[in-house]
Amino acid sequence: MTQNDTIISKMEHVEESLKDTLHRVEVIERKLKTKLLTAENREKLENELEGVKEVLRRNEKELQSLRRENSKSFMITVILIFLCFLFYGVYLMIFGNV
């Protein structure tokens, strides 16, 4: 991601990454359920599963922080719009009907 990406595009990127990671977790868990795995392969899959789950937790935290940042931006926008209407109302009250 570059510096010029919007919060929404960053959120979409992280959500796609989450979806891919969840799919990978499902695949690994399905493989672990089979009884045809050797002990070495099972251990490799379990280690890979732990790594993938760590990536999943990191991406979820990133998504939460992006959503917080997005809600802050939204609140600032709402406040600015409210102030514009307030100033317009005060202007109309002072200078009469336009």
Automatic annotation (TrEMBL):
Membrane topology note: Single-pass membrane protein
Xref: Pfam families: CCDC-167
Keywords from the UniProt entry: Coiled coil, Membrane, Transmembrane, Transmembrane helix
Parts of the chain that traverse the membrane: 74-94
Coiled coil: 11-69
Major place of residence: membrane
Subcellular location: Membrane
Keyword Nuclease applies: no
One GO location term (cellular component): membrane
Signal peptide (from-to): none
Name of the protein this chain belongs to: Coiled-coil domain-containing protein 167
Organism: Cardiocondyla obscurior
Lineage: Eukaryota, Metazoa, Ecdysozoa, Arthropoda, Hexapoda
